Amino acid sequence: MNLVICLLFSCFLRHVIARGAQRSTSLSSGFRNDSYAAITRHLFEENQSQPSIDIARGYMTNSELEKAVKEFGQRCSHISRIYSIGTSVKGVPLWVIEISDKPGEEEPEPAFKFVGNVHGDEPVGRELLILLANWICDNYMRDPLVKLIVENVHLHILPSMNPDGFSLRRRGNANGIDLNRDFPDQFFPWNDYEDARQPETKAIMSWLREIHFTASASLHGGALVANYPWDGTQDKRRNYYACPDDGTFRFLASVYSQSHYNMSLSKEFKGGITNGASWYPIYGGMQDWNYIYGGCFELTLEISDNKWPNAKELPTIWEYNKISMLNLVASLVKTGVHGRVFSSDRGRPLPGSITIKGINYTVKAGMAFADYHRILVPVERYEVMAAVPGYKSKATSIWLGEEAMTVDFILDPGVTSEGTLLQSICGCNCGHKSRHLLVDYFWGIHFEVYLVLIVVLAFLCFLLRRRIKFNLLKHRQSPKRSVMV
Ligand SMILES: [Zn+2]
C-alpha cells in the first residue's frame, strides 16, 4: 500500500514539476479539469507506473538524430535536401530537412518551418518531426494532402534547435540559457545585441533573413494546447493580449487543435487554443519575434502533457498529432489570399507590401517572384491593398470563401504626365527639354509620322499587358478563384 501511495505521489510531483517549470502562473489560476486529467492519465499510464526508468531510453541520441536526418536525405533525395543553419554551443550541427518537389529552388510558393526541441528537456518534437518527414516521403503520390504539400509548399524541418540541452537533459542550452527567452522583444529590449545571443538563437535569426517563411510552429511539451501571439504584455500582467492578427492566429491554432485527437476537447483551454499572454506572459520568445520581425505567423504547440514521456508513447503521440501537422502546413495553400505583384510598364515582379484593411500588419511579397501568401480567416470579406514605392497603390474588395483565392496586382508607375509614361515604355532617358520637343513636333509637319508611331506604341503596350496576363496564368499552381487587379 505504501508503495502505491509513494508511486502516486511521485507521479503527481513529476506532473507538478513539469508544469511548474514552464507554466508557473497556470498553477495559481485555479483551473483544473477532471476529464482532461483523465485523458492525460490514460495517455501516460505506462510511463507513470515506471518512474525509475531511464527517461532517454528509446529516444534518438544527437548522433542517431544526425544519422536519421542524413539517411532520410539519401532515401528521399527526389523531394528533399539536407542543410545546416549553424551549430550549437558545443558544435553540434543544427540540421534542417527541406521537403519540396523542387528543394533548394526558389519558387512562388509559401514556406513553412517546424522547429523541435527548443527546450532540451522536451524531446517529443524531435522524434515526431523525423516521423513526419518519413511519412511525407512514404506517402507522396499516395496521399492527396501530402502531394499538395510537396508540390505547393517548401517545408523546412529543424528537428532539434537545442541538441546540447537534450544531451544534458535540461531546458536551457549548454550555457544554461532558455532559448525561448533569447530573442529581441517588442516591450523589453534588454537583449537587443545580437552578438550577446546564443548561437542557436542567432542561427534561427539568420535563417529567417535567408528564407521568407509564411508560417511556422515550434514544438514543446508539458501541456496540450496551441499557443498564439502575443506572448507578452506591456505591463507584464497576465491578460489576453491580442496581436493585430488575433483572428488569423485563432484560426491557425484551431486548424491544429481541431485536427488533433484530443487537444480541442480540453476544458482547461477552450477549443485547445490559447493566447500566450493570457496563459502566462513571456519575453524574448521566438513566437512573437517571428511575427514582428520575420513576417512569419508562428504558433507554439504544446504536444504532450508530459515533457519527457516514455518512448513507448511516441507512436501514440505521433498518431494524435499527424493529421494536425499535415493540415497546418496544407492550410497555407488551402486557404488565404495569394498572388503576385507586377509592374504594368515592364511586367517586372515588384516585391511590395500587402495589407488588409482593418489589420495593422504588412505581409511582404518575395524578392525573386514578388509572390505573397496572406493567411486569413475564411468566409469573410476583405479589402486587400498592394503598395510599392514609386507605384500607384491598388486595393480590391474580395469575398474569401473556404478555399484559397488568388489576387494578382499590376501596378502603374506613380506618374501622371503623358511624356513620362512614354519614357517608361521606351526605356530611354528622355529629359525635360526633349518632352517639349515631342509636343512641338507632334503638332508640326511630322504629325502623320508620329500618329503612326503612337498607334504602334499603343499596340506594343497591348501586347505587353497580354504577356503579363499569360505569365500570371502560367505561375498559378491550383485551380483557385482568381482576381487580377
Ligand atoms: Zn518548451
Automatic annotation (TrEMBL):
<keyword id="KW-0121">Carboxypeptidase</keyword>
<dbReference type="InterPro" id="IPR057247">
    <property type="entry name" value="CARBOXYPEPT_ZN_2"/>
</dbReference>
<dbReference type="GO" id="GO:0006518">
    <property type="term" value="P:peptide metabolic process"/>
</dbReference>
<keyword id="KW-0472">Membrane</keyword>
<keyword id="KW-0862">Zinc</keyword>
<keyword id="KW-0479">Metal-binding</keyword>
<keyword id="KW-0645">Protease</keyword>
<keyword id="KW-1133">Transmembrane helix</keyword>
<keyword id="KW-0378">Hydrolase</keyword>
<dbReference type="GO" id="GO:0008270">
    <property type="term" value="F:zinc ion binding"/>
</dbReference>
<feature type="signal peptide">
    <location>
        <begin position="1"/>
        <end position="18"/>
    </location>
</feature>
<keyword id="KW-0325">Glycoprotein</keyword>
<dbReference type="InterPro" id="IPR000834">
    <property type="entry name" value="Peptidase_M14"/>
</dbReference>
<keyword id="KW-0812">Transmembrane</keyword>
<feature type="domain" description="Peptidase M14">
    <location>
        <begin position="58"/>
        <end position="332"/>
    </location>
</feature>
<dbReference type="InterPro" id="IPR050753">
    <property type="entry name" value="Peptidase_M14_domain"/>
</dbReference>
<feature type="active site" description="Proton donor/acceptor">
    <location>
        <position position="302"/>
    </location>
</feature>
<protein>
    <submittedName>
        <fullName>Carboxypeptidase SOL1 isoform X1</fullName>
    </submittedName>
</protein>
<keyword id="KW-0732">Signal</keyword>
<dbReference type="GO" id="GO:0005615">
    <property type="term" value="C:extracellular space"/>
</dbReference>
<dbReference type="InterPro" id="IPR057246">
    <property type="entry name" value="CARBOXYPEPT_ZN_1"/>
</dbReference>
<dbReference type="GO" id="GO:0004181">
    <property type="term" value="F:metallocarboxypeptidase activity"/>
</dbReference>
<comment type="similarity">
    <text>Belongs to the peptidase M14 family.</text>
</comment>
<feature type="transmembrane region" description="Helical">
    <location>
        <begin position="441"/>
        <end position="464"/>
    </location>
</feature>
<dbReference type="GO" id="GO:0016485">
    <property type="term" value="P:protein processing"/>
</dbReference>
<dbReference type="Pfam" id="PF00246">
    <property type="entry name" value="Peptidase_M14"/>
</dbReference>
<dbReference type="InterPro" id="IPR008969">
    <property type="entry name" value="CarboxyPept-like_regulatory"/>
</dbReference>
